[in-house]
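Q: A reviewer asked whether we had any structural model of the full assembly, not just the individual parts. We don't, so I'm hoping you can provide one. Inputs are below.
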Amino acid sequence: MSATIFRFGEGNPQYDAQGRLRHLLSTEGLRERELLQILDTAESFLSIAHRSVKKTPTLRGRTIVNLFFENSTRTRSTFELAAKRLSADVLNIAVSSSSASKGESLMDTVNNLMAMQVDGFVIRHPEAGAVHLVARHLGDSALVVNAGDGQHAHPTQALLDVFTIRRLAGPIEDRVVAIVGDVLHSRVARSQIHALSILGCPEIRVIGPRTLVPEELSALGVHVYHDLQAGLRGVDVICALRLQRERMESHRLPSLDEFHRRFGLTPERLQWAEPGALVLHPGPMNRGVEIASEVADGAQAVILQQVAHGLAVRMAVLTILSGAAGGE
Amino acid sequence: MTTDWDVSALLEVMARDLRPLIDPEQAAMIGIFTGGVWLARTLHAALGLQQPLGQVDISFYRDDFSQIGLHPQVRASDIPFDVDGRDIILVDDVLYTGRTVRAAMNEIFDYGRPARIRLAVLVDRAGHELPVAADVAALRLNATAGEHIKLRGPDPLRLELEQRRPQP
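A: Here is a predicted structure for the entire assembly that you could use as a starting point for your response.
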């Protein structure tokens, strides 16, 4: 599959006719204003996890469907919990993609659920663009959140990452961020790059082997490195990516050992970055491949905070998108 | 337009009327964003309350969320004391429909079960839509529906009265 950046027709289907954010499909094309509103609203939701009643009545009476055509534990469960903490009702549907003749069955599924008067969809799909199609199909009638579509985008992961950077590393406008690993095939990396650029990150680096981090990525406004030591110099935040084992089959990588030897994050190599640099990972981790256990469990890793932040960020996204459903 | 009400004098009235009602060792205060928090900072110091000041943003609890959506700027609620069994003074700038106070009480109950909540406001104006009454109000006004009363601040605090055309 090619790694072309998708451009979807005219206009931006994330916004309604009044210019309000109605769907969250990608961090690409988000305005800084909305991005900051999501992050600021998430700050307000963080404290709710520490109260005796961990719920607000915000989405009482609404129904959100988690429609997952790909496996997911963390993303699906945090979306479920986010909707429940907002007092929404949640329907979880896992569809095996192999059992469906894709395009048509996806719209059929959506239409059937719409007949049950649901208010929103959180969708993960193996094909890039599938979630956009649903959003265009539904228009104003229900909100759509992209929970990962093929190699295209995973906006809530990127939002929780920038939320984590902002909270724990300080202002994004003066932090150097490096994304390490299989950038070419990563929907997380692509969404991170757009979110960081919109928030004014002065230097975004991508680090990895030529087969997974080709020079052409510099078109996204990032600095490309094929040497970990050079790439980590002066870096404040390191975003590790999950190495997809299936890439081995496409001969883009000689072996997992080889990857670990050249690009795996170990305690010694962390010294190459700024002292105390943060280490993020979207999970699930391949310990001993892209990240050593000593780093994953070490003082600089903020991987479990990312999970807690993900819940608050998803509550913020669902609230803001639901709010845009109101009005006259 | 800015009115000639002296907000500091009105704050003194609020403090004077609250003093006999509370035990400064035990009672705690919560301001409602934004105006209520400004007033609560002054009252909290004037009354010598021992518990740290709390603040609530009721955006997630509004009963009109599905009509108007989320306020563009939500601040974090913070209640830094144990609510259970506590005497709480809830502070807001203007008591109008009563819906904000209802939302704030709903939120407070998600932190625990207070022994009592008292309501202290700068202005109690006509137009209540819920059975909510202020225990302390520095000013009671018979404002009409077209009149909008707003506290501006924080420095200096001033009360503004504005005529609004009726919505078509």
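A: Points you may want to mention in the reply: The CA atoms of residues 59 and 65 of chain B lie 8 Å apart. The radius of gyration of chain B is 16 Å.
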